[in-house]
Each structure stands twice: as structure tokens, then as C-alpha cells.
Amino acid sequence: MSSFLGVRLDVTPGQKLLGQPWLKVRIALVSALVLVVGALLAPRAAQPVSVPDASAVPLLGEQARREAARPVGGLQSVAAGAARFSLAMPPPTSDTAPSTLRDYSPPLTRLVRPAGFGVVVSAAGDVLTHESALEGRATARVQTATGAFEDARIVAYEPATGLTLLRVPVATPLEAPALASRAEAGALVAAVGRWEGRVIAQPAFISSVGPDAYTIASPGDPLLPGSPVYNSDGQLLAIAAGGHQSGRAFPAAEALARLAARAAAGRAHPPSIGVAFQPLDGELTRAFGQPGALVSEVIEGGPADAAGLIPGDLLVGINDGPIDSSDAALRTLAALASDSETVLRVVRDGRSRTLTVTVGSALAMVALARSAELEEAGPLPEARTLWTAEQLRSAGIPAAARVLRIEGRAVTSRSQALRELRRTRPSSLVYLLHERRRFFASIGEQP
Q1: Residues 77-92: pLDDT tens digits?
Q2: 103-108: which pairs have CB atoms within 8 A and are 24 or more residues apart?
Q3: Are residues 254 and 276 in the same domain?
Q4: Residue numbers of the domain that contains 212
């Protein structure tokens, strides 16, 4: 049985509890349990497997008491029982092994890693996964737990989370795991998949619980996208995300309900023109001078890009209806039919323009966005080097954001950015990049 084990665990807010001597003892006991479980899950390898420092295990007190009472073989049993529900997503091409597999797995001569996993959630062959497991493909070919390959079709996709529902053709009803209710922060979980005849099990912890998603801390590599996450009772708890959402997992029961409803309504592929909008508020409202939906990103090669839309355009109308906010734009676009022609009315540099766009699908836009992801050419100045902390807070700009443009002019260095700021009006419109997100902000002049 294979597992991924690393050398570090991120410390969560729960670490502040470790100052209590009685809890240190309990944490040490639970840490020892985790290390033993990791050793049981680890494959036989030529190199020793490194283990995390016991003091970094992010468990809260109540979870420590519960997990310490469980048998050592708990996660091993979960992995053995859950693997039969797993489906793997083969990568488009793969000829080199990631370091984890090179170090800890026997030599592999065929495909060396899955692009991600999915999990059977209905007898009819429905499978929950995450779009990042498809690696930009609009079609899906999956490997079942028996090793057979099947062509699956996408029956529902949720742009906000990236969750995807596939349907695999089945001759006989499939077995699905029991669904879990919500978990608490600090709970011990396991991400389980089967690939090329091997069970891959990654021990992990839920480090925080949000209203819509969990944050997952895993020793070593992040969970593979689409990985089903199980609690220690063997119930399906969540689906791991990938890409820019790596480290998050979405509750499986809630995800299945939403996607099944979308599929039943015939909205498998929500419409999209390949843009992102940014709300107009504060100084941005004064900078643009009228209500509308501010276009903050345009996917290269998408319908909006082909129609001539650019970041910084203010969308003020769709077909015959006015648009006064980003929410109104999203609602109107969501009601359009794919492949329909739509008229956009935009304001650019104070002048009105009319553009005609052919609506596409949201999943196709994801594929285009992935293929268009390129490293920024040359160094870009950081916001913290151009403005004070107070100015950045007031404008809502992260200190580490990188500046792409100032008043529409591209900048590639701090000195160039300072020159552009000196020639602009007291309040400058800047275009920034932070954690793969591009956005506009209006910020005052240098003090």
C-alpha cells in the first residue's frame, strides 16, 4: 500500500493551545500514533521515509482525546475499504515521475502518476471530482478501481468551486461510500485513491472549517485534485480541490446535492464568455464615473477576447438590458444560451462601444485559462515598494501584489512605476496581480 509522507506540517491556530503541559503529553501520544500509521501505510522503499516533527501536529485538545483512543490500524482499514470507490484521471501525457513517487515507489514503466482522482457517488455511475483533475480537458477518460479505462461524460460543472460530476457507463449498479456529516477542525482524515493497481493513501488533518469548504493540512505533497477525503469511520467527507484552490476540500454531501440538481435541470455546462468582473466600490466608483460591471480579466482565446473586450472595459448593457453591477452582469450572462450571439455595450476611455460575442461554456473557459497560464515576462514591482502600508490598506491592495499597469501603461520595474506615478493625477488607476487574480484599484499619490 502506498502513501505520501513529507517532512512538514503547517501549524494552525490550534498550536496556541500547546503551551498547556497536559495537552503536550496528549499531542505527543497522538503524534506517535500518526507516525505509526504513516509507517504502516508507507511502501517498502530503498530510501528511508522522513516523518513530520511531532510538535507540529495540528490537533486540538478534544480531537486529541478522541483520536488517541482509536486503534492504530484505523487509517489503514479506511484506505483498504475505500479504494474500491475510487476512479483515477489519467494525465494527458506523462513521462517523468514526481519526486515523491521516485523516492518512495517501486519503478514504474507506464503512466507514473494520475492527474487526480474521483469517487463513485451513485449506483448509476455518477462520479464526483474536481475540474483540475481533468487538466484542462473538456472530456474525461477514467480508470476504474478494476484497472479498466472508460470514457466518461461531464453531466454537471460548478464554476464557483470547480467541482465536476461525471457519469461513467456501467453494466451493473456500482457501490458508493456512505456520506459523512460535517467534521470539526483538527479531525484526522485520509485521502484515498487507486492508481495502476496501487492504493494511494495520504493522511491529513482538517486545519480549519469554513462555511463552504475545509482547509486541509497534509504532510508532504498536497492532496491530488479530486481526491475523496474520508473520516476515520470510512465515510466520504469531502472532495479535494486542486490548482489555485489547492489545500481546500468541499463537503461531499452538499456538493453532490448541488451538482445533481444542476444536472437534472439540464445545466451541465453553465454559459460563459470568458471574463471576470470586479465590483465598483469606493474610489473605483469615482474613477469610472458611472455604474456598471468592471471587466478585470479576459481569458485569452475566449469569446470575449475574440469580440475585442479588454480588462478595464466597463460593461453597461447586455442585449437590450442595462447592467449596473457585476452581480447583474453575472445573473444576465448565466441566463444566456450557449452558442447564442450576445450584444455587449461597454464604456472604454469614456467612449461607448458595442461588441458582439458568441457565448461559450464555463468548462471550456477553464481549459483555455489553463493553456494560457504563462509566467509574467520580467520582474514586476511590488505594491509595498511604491506606497505606504496605510495607502495600501485604504485602497484594499495586498502588500505583495505586483503592479502590471498604471493608468493603462505597462510597468516592469519600480523605477518605471515611480515615473508613471509622477506623471499621473493625484489618484491613479492601477492594474495588479495577486495570487493569480488580476484586479483594478484606485490609489492616492505618493505622500
Answers
A1: 788 888 889 999 888 6
A2: 103/45, 103/47, 104/2, 104/3, 104/4, 104/5, 104/42, 104/43, 104/45, 104/47, 104/49, 105/2, 105/43, 105/45, 105/198, 106/43, 108/196
A3: no
A4: 1-268
